[in-house]
């Protein structure tokens, strides 16, 4: 028996319906800053398409790989200083020497919630914008009626963009959260105990049928390219065993884009 597919499009469409009137009321500009990288290009291009539907102007800044970290950060800072720009998104993940660029994203334009001050609000439980991908995971679960309170949630991935903030946000929903990673011993055993398994490692095929049961709800946040094809962390064999699974592509991704534009609307407020 095949698992129920948790498709992102209907969830994303619902979010767009709620914000489209607000985006067309004003002249809204979004800027993305990153390098010429296949994964980033695909993501940035998808933002442009969504922006066009919402009447939002989206500018892509693709930096040359020879640019210095200081020059990269200066570009981010300049875009944030531009009063006509409502939101700025910086490529994730970035090469190590460029990672501090997120510090230069103004908190009031940080719609991807990567600035440490924005994350501090999440850690302290203070009201504010929340990281788009983790929030998209929760929105997707909400859309399909999956309750987190009291559930065992296993997050595979400890990155600053998804794993860590998602764990905090799930705790905020009164879930019991376990955070794992690729170095976790007996990873499959830990994952099998999860009611909801969320993988955000970017390791193609990491989650196999040995990691799930027939009752597992699996959310795939991974993104890899294998033989020119987009794939997630979850192997195809999982689809035949678990209760429900979000596919890659077509799962969390569309919802993430919708949540970003919702954050953009909130940033204007």
Attribute tags:
11 strands; 269 residues
Round the Cα radius of gyration to an integer and report it.
18 Å
Task: Determine the strand fraction and express it as a percent band.
Answer: 15-25%
Query: How would a crystallographer describe the biggest sheet?
Result: 6 strands, parallel
Mean of pLDDT = 93
Could you give the order of strands across the largest sheet?
Answer: 1-11-8-7-5-6
Count of beta strands: 11
Helical content, roughly?
A: 25-40%
Number of helices: 8
Order of helices and strands: EHEHEHEHHEHEHEEEEEH
Contiguous low-pLDDT stretches (5 residues minimum) are none
Helix vs. strand class: alpha/beta
Explain this structure.
This protein is of the alpha/beta class and 269 residues long. The protein has eight helices and eleven strands. It has helices at 9-23, 38-54, 69-81, 116-124, 132-143, 163-172, 187-192, 252-268, and strands at 4-5, 29-35, 57-63, 87-90, 152-156, 176-180, 196-199, 217-220, 224-226, 229-231, 244-246. Strands 1-11-8-7-5-6 form a six-stranded parallel beta sheet. Strands 3-2-4 form a three-stranded parallel beta sheet, with helices on both faces. A two-stranded antiparallel ribbon has the order 9-10. β9 (224-226) and β10 (229-231) form a beta hairpin. α1 runs parallel beside α8 (252-268), α5 crosses α6 and α5 (132-143) crosses α8 (252-268). The radius of gyration is 18 Å and the shape is globular.
């Amino acid at each position: 028996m095949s698992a129920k597919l948790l498709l992102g499009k209907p969830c994303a469409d619902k979010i767009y319906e709620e914000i489209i009137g607000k985006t067309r009321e004003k002249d809204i500009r979004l800027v993305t800053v990153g390098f010429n990288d296949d994964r980033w290009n695909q993501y940035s291009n998808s933002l442009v398409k969504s922006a066009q539907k919402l009447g939002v102007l989206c500018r892509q800044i693709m930096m040359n790989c020879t640019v210095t970290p200081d020059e990269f950060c200066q570009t981010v800072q300049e875009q944030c200083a531009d009063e006509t720009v409502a939101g700025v998104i910086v490529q994730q993940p970035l090469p190590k020497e460029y990672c501090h660029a997120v510090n230069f994203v103004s908190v009031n334009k940080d719609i991807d919630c990567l600035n440490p001050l924005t994350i501090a609000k999440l850690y302290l439980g203070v009201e504010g914008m929340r990281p788009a991908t983790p929030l998209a995971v929760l929105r997707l679960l909400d859309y399909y009626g999956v309750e987190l309170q009291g559930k065992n949630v296993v997050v595979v991935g400890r990155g600053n963009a998804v794993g860590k903030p998602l764990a905090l946000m799930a705790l905020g929903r009164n879930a019991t959260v376990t955070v794992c990673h690729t170095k976790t011993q007996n990873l499959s055993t830990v994952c099998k105990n999860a009611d909801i398994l969320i993988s955000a490692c970017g390791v193609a095929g990491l989650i196999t049928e040995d990691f799930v049961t027939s009752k597992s709800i699996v959310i795939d946040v991974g993104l890899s390219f294998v033989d020119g094809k987009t794939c997630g962390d979850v192997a195809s064999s999982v689809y035949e065993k678990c209760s429900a699974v979000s596919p890659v592509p077509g799962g969390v991704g569309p919802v993430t884009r919708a949540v970003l534009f919702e954050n953009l609307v909130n940033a204007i407020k």
